[in-house]
Amino acid sequence: MSERAGVAASGLRSVTAAQWRVARVTPLGEFAQPARITGTAARLAAQVFLVVCLWRSLYSQVDTSAGLVREQAVTYAVLAVLALQIRGLDRSASRDTMLQHIQEGTVLYWFVRPLSPRRYYLVRAVGDQLYGFAWVAIGYTVCLICGAVEPPASGGAAAAFAVSMLLAQVIMYQLLLAVDLLCFWTLQNGAALTILRFLQNLLSGVIAPLWFFPDWFLTMSSVLPFRYTLDVPLSLYIGRQPLGDAPRLLAIQVLWCVLLAGLTRLMWRKAARIVTVQGG
User: Fold this and answer.
1) What is the pLDDT of residue 273?
2) Cβ atoms < 10 Å from Cβ of 210
3) Could you give the C-alpha distances from 189 to 100, 102, 176, 184, 195, in angstroms and in order?
4) For FRET with 4, which of 27, 95, 117, 232 sits at 20 to 30 Å CA-CA?
5) Is the pLDDT of residue 5 over 60?
6) Exposure b/e, 245-257, CB count within 10 A at least 16 = b
7) With the C-alpha atoms ordered 121, 123, 129, 135, is the resulting torsion angle positive or negative?
8) DSSP H stretches of helix in the chain
């Protein structure tokens, strides 16, 4: 019995080590190219600076608009820019997107590794997100010190924001995974990815806080998952969304996580049966 336990423990350590190596591929690739890190820092600084200038100028003649004061609007816009960095990495340059693997035939190796393709994709995504979160943490700290963003509206708002942002990343992960898995049936997902990015930017509050849009637009966005990937956590952070609404909003986010997880799980199962590649 002890021998079996030792073998099981050894296998678990081996799998854990393999997952750790997979998760750190993205950060190691970035650190190996300092020019990319410098470029990311410069781009992020320029975006934040321009956003701050834009929203401060828009509020130069008014004190409140759409229920937001200037500090709330600026904070919302800056945090939206920073949040995009969580998934700002482009794997296409290193030819590591699912589409490229399917076209080249290398996706076959996903199905013969010790890690299942579903687990491999998840671990890689977690590694990407942790790297992105590091950028967000640094950017947020700098912006907070410089006065570009305000602290959370309250301690409760900070806690609700943290939970909501975590659920938002799960939703976004599932949406991107579903689009990637379409490649197993279409062999192309460029158009679907473009549509997803457009809807995400428009309906999540990236372009502008959703509070500036008409009521019918808010109603429409409330029944789709995109609003819950950014607008909800940021609205809780700045206090525009009452803290009393947090349980309901978090419950909706959990519901979207469950529904999308079920969809992608089904897509993985069907994809494994029809693996088709263009490269061999």
Assistant:
1) 76
2) 24
3) 11, 11, 11, 9, 10
4) 117
5) no
6) ebeebbebbeebb
7) negative
8) 2-23, 25-31, 34-58, 70-84, 98-104, 117-146, 155-181, 183-186, 190-203, 215-222, 231-238, 246-273
In the chain, what is the straight-line distance between the N-terminal and C-terminal CA atoms, in Å?
A: 45
Q: Is the dihedral of CA 246, 248, 249, 253 positive or negative?
A: positive
Write down how long the chain is.
Answer: 280
DSSP reduced 3-state for 59: coil
**192 touches 179 (CB < 8 A):** yes
174, burial (CB in 10 Å: exposed 0-12, middle 13-18, buried 19+): buried
DSSP letters for 184-234: HHHS--HHHHHHHHHHHHHHTTSSS-GGGS-HHHHHHHHTSSGGGGTHHHH
Contact 98, 141 (CB under 8 A): no
Arithmetic mean of pLDDT over the chain: 84
C-alpha–C-alpha distance, residues 161 and 144, integer Å: 16
CA distance 76 to 61: 19
Q: Are the C-beta atoms of 226 and 199 separated by less than 8 Å?
A: yes
pTM, rounded to two decimals = 0.85
Residue with tokens 């410098």: 38
